[in-house]
Specification:
The chain is an alpha+beta fold. 22% of the residues lie in helices and 37% in strands.
Amino acid sequence: MGRATYIEPNVDEWLNKFHFHTDIKVRYSETDMSGHINNTSYAIYFEQVRAEYLHELDFYRSDLTVVTADFWTHYHHEAYFPDTLHAGVRVAKLGQKSLDLEYYLYSTEKQKLVATACGTLVVIDKLSNKTTKIPQQLRVQIQETEQMT
């Protein structure tokens, strides 16, 4: 994938598009022998912020779930234990049966953007185990949360 082309028009303006944030405390077990966060831990951090966001939207209703269709991570700077990462997620595009998400992790200690990611979630009906349209009420809630016009 190369360069993080979804970061536009620039990093500051892109970060201002995020309306959901949480903080993640790096644990020692998430680092490698070099002392920095292991690259596999970033997916867990992005999953954590995504799960909190979807929970806040009440997305995890009894009849719906999501599966990850694709996911791309871009590493910008290293971070270390015991750093605190400010994390954000947003719906960049709302499809009929899918959501394109963007993510960031920002080191509060280093004051640097550590990693970004983008990916697609597909909405699944738990009973039929098939893709399904995003319910209108949930669609409106996402549009309001994300200030989509």
